[in-house]
Amino acid sequence: MGLLVDGIWHDTWYDTKSTGGAFKRSAAQFRNWITADGSAGPSGRDGFKAESGRYHLYVSLACPWAHRTLIFRELKDLSAHISVSVVNPDMLDKGWTFEKDDHGATGDTLLGKEFAHQIYTTADPKYSGRVTVPILWDKQQNTVVSNESSEIIRMFNAAFDGITGNTLDFWPEELREPIETVNERIYHQVNNGVYKCGFATSQDAYDTAVHPLFDTLDWLEDLLSQHRYLMGNRVTEADWRLFTTLVRFDPVYHLHFKCNKKRLIDYPNLWAYTRELYQWPGVAQTVNFDHIVRHYHYSHDTINPHRILPVNPVLEWDLPHGRDQMV
Ligand SMILES: N[C@@H](CCC(=O)N[C@@H](CS)C(=O)NCC(=O)O)C(=O)O
């Protein structure tokens, strides 16, 4: 794990000394938007028109943020239009690498690089910051469009509709306000909440993260006992954003990140809801438990110094979810 400073790679772990042991996630820096006509989006510059074959996605199958983008690529029929490279699950002293494996790591099928940090320095030779996935790459301008998953999924939701004919809308105009409200709570307490527990280096920082995490899971359990999805009877981006954390909860976060007050399977509604989303057409193929379990336990040697991979209980992801009866 490390970061780039003026385009030079440095191998350093997250700095939690200056924050009393608390993990603070830094903001993504490439914030352009692909749009249907190439006009500028809510941030960044114009010039990124939706075109078949023009864009490439770099992901880790272990990463919950990258996972969102892979799910939207499936849900929106973009796999024939946006190509993908998958990094190796081991993120060690050189950061994410393109070393191939037999479990889904493809190598860099576009630029042939060895390390993900070289993708960033190809876009900006003086880049300073963390080298994160997902990375959405523009083959035409040879640059990064975006490295912010929450924005990439919104691009995928709409920009290519004229090319694919797929007009499914996971961010409908009339639900944007409540979606933003629920996203905000889930991002801080759950999506990033599990990381705040796992990367805490003081008891205080852990305690501050773990209780709101389980309060929010309790609240979600109650909500999902009354409604099929977070917004009622319609699946939205809020559900997919939550799903990528929930699917990792018992295999990784429960043990490795010490999110162990309860397991996902102790929440009947949340567990059935997560299974329904897992069984959604196209979604199960985006979930790779080999990479998920391997990445966290092998890469975070400050948490698991001997790199022993746990055996983990087998979860029955294909059990009937029974959620069809709900409103
Ligand atoms: N804001 C980013 C966060 C992405 C992110 O943190 N990805 C992790 C993998 S799960 C990563 O690449 N971390 C490497 C690092 O922090 O050095 C997004 O949602 O796209």
Automatic annotation (TrEMBL):
Give the transmembrane ranges: none
* Upper lineage: Bacteria, Pseudomonadati, Pseudomonadota, Alphaproteobacteria, Rhodobacterales
Which superkingdom?
Bacteria
Ligand binding (glutathione): W96, R130, V131, T132, V133, E148, S149
Identify which residues the record assigns to the active site.
C63 (nucleophile), Y195 (proton donor/acceptor)
Indicate the segments annotated as coiled coil, or none if absent. Answer: none
Domain GST C-terminal: where?
A: 172-296
Protein keywords: Transferase
- Provide the site residues for: Lowers pKa of active site Cys: Y253, Y296
Q: Molecular function (GO) terms listed?
A: glutathione transferase activity
- Is Transferase found in the keyword set? yes
PANTHER family assigned: GLUTATHIONE S-TRANSFERASE OMEGA-LIKE 1-RELATED (PTHR32419:SF6), GLUTATHIONYL-HYDROQUINONE REDUCTASE (PTHR32419)
Q: Which Gene3D superfamilies does this chain map to?
A: 1.20.1050.10, Glutaredoxin
Q: What is this protein called?
A: Glutathione S-transferase family protein
Q: Which GO terms describe its cellular component?
A: cytoplasm
